[in-house]
Design brief:
By secondary structure, the protein is mostly helical. The protein contains three helices and no strands. It is elongated. The chain starts with a helix and ends in a 30-residue tail after the last helix.
Length: about 120
C-alpha cells in the first residue's frame, strides 16, 4: 500500500509541475501571438511592366519573353460564330421566316400599319 501511495503522490506532483510549465508556455505563446502584428509592414505594389509605370529597362525583357512564348493555343479573333444571326438579319423583310424554312412567305401575320391586311 505504501508503494501505491508514493506512486500516486509522485504522479500528482508531476501533474502540478507540468501544469505550471504549461501555463508559462501558454503565456509565452499568447504574448508572441499578440505582438506578431506589430512586426507586419505595409504592402506596396511596384509595377513590373513599363506600360503601367514600371522600370523602363524591363520592356525589352518582357517583349522578348512574350515573343519566345509564341502565339499560343488561341490566337486571332476568338469571338463567337455569328453567321446564323447575320443570315437571319439579312432575311428580315425578304419574306422568309428564318432558319429551317426555305424561302416561304409568312402570310398569317398581320401588319398593323397596313390598311390592306386584316386578321381573320
Amino acid at each position: 500500500m505504501d508503494a501505491s501511495r508514493r506512486v500516486v503522490r509522485d504522479l500528482k506532483q508531476r501533474l502540478t509541475d507540468m501544469s505550471e510549465g504549461g501555463f508559462r508556455l501558454l503565456c509565452v505563446i499568447g504574448v508572441a501571438a499578440f505582438l506578431t502584428p506589430a512586426l507586419a509592414t505595409e504592402q506596396v505594389y511596384h509595377p513590373v511592366s513599363p506600360t503601367f509605370g514600371g522600370n523602363p529597362y524591363n520592356g525589352t525583357f518582357l517583349l522578348s519573353t512574350a515573343q519566345a512564348q509564341g502565339a499560343g493555343a488561341k490566337s486571332g479573333n476568338q469571338g463567337p460564330d455569328l453567321t446564323p444571326l447575320a443570315n437571319a438579319l439579312n432575311n428580315v423583310g425578304n419574306g422568309t421566316t428564318g432558319a429551317g424554312t426555305s424561302g416561304t412567305t409568312n402570310s398569317t401575320v398581320a401588319n398593323p400599319t397596313s390598311t390592306a391586311a386584316h386578321m381573320p
